[in-house]
UniProtKB/TrEMBL annotation:
Pfam families, alphabetized: SNase
Keyword terms: Membrane, Transmembrane, Transmembrane helix
Lineage summary: Bacteria, Bacillati, Actinomycetota, Actinomycetes, Micrococcales
Entry keyword annotation includes Ubl conjugation: no
Matching PROSITE patterns: TNASE_3
Entry annotated with the keyword Zinc: no
TNase-like domain: residues covered: 51-189
Protein name listed in UniProt: Thermonuclease family protein
Membrane-crossing segments per the record: 12-34
């Protein structure tokens, strides 16, 4: 084979190897990111239960409290009026009367997950209301992202177990441990 022919072969081999490497990078790194983001569901995190009800977010109070109204008649929320909803299993820094470290960030995290006007799937636990008459709920975005878990997993809040509402307490504790180890959110900023 002539020197010119060998150069062409080398170029084609180099091109084929480069193409294969690029395909491998896309397959290993990009495809999982696109898949996770498009479904909204993280691996090992539960989807909304079959009995979850659709609610509409009316306002965001802080990182773990919203005001919402029922889309369907009755159920987890009472009547047609909007009412306060406290997310079960997560506690975020306060924004009232004073803003605590991470409070504004936690509120923004919840606003990003559940913008005003969006709809969410809601499910209660053993005790449906707290002493302030707020509905106690687990919330999922319409595409299935578990909001309570996401707040803990990103370090926007900490896991908070208040019996008897502890259906996902182990999941939240594990998410908190991972966030703490990674110095995510308030773990890297406030502690």
């Amino acid at each position: 084979m002539s020197p010119l022919g060998r150069r062409r072969v080398r170029r084609w081999v180099l091109f084929a190897v480069s193409l294969a490497a690029a395909a491998l990078v896309v397959f290993v790194f990009v495809v999982p990111l696109v898949t996770d983001r498009s479904s909204g569901v993280a691996a090992g995190v539960p989807s909304p239960p079959a009995d979850a009800e659709l609610i509409e977010i009316v306002s965001i109070t802080d990182g773990d409290t919203v005001r919402a109204r029922s889309v369907d008649d009755g159920g987890v929320l009472l009547g047609d009026e909007d009412e306060p909803v406290r997310l079960i299993g997560v506690d975020t820094p306060e924004v009232r009367p004073d803003v605590e470290c991470g409070g504004a960030e936690a509120t923004r995290a919840l606003e990003d997950l559940l913008p005003v006007g969006s709809r969410a799937w809601a499910s209660s636990d053993a005790e449906p209301r707290d002493r302030y008459d707020r509905a106690l709920l687990y919330l999922w975005t319409e595409d299935g992202a578990f909001v309570n878990h996401a707040l803990v997993a990103t370090g926007a809040g900490v896991a908070l177990e208040v019996e008897p509402n502890s259906r996902y307490a182990d999941l939240f504790a594990s998410a908190e441990a991972s966030a703490r180890t990674a110095d995510a959110g308030l773990w890297g900023t406030c502690h």
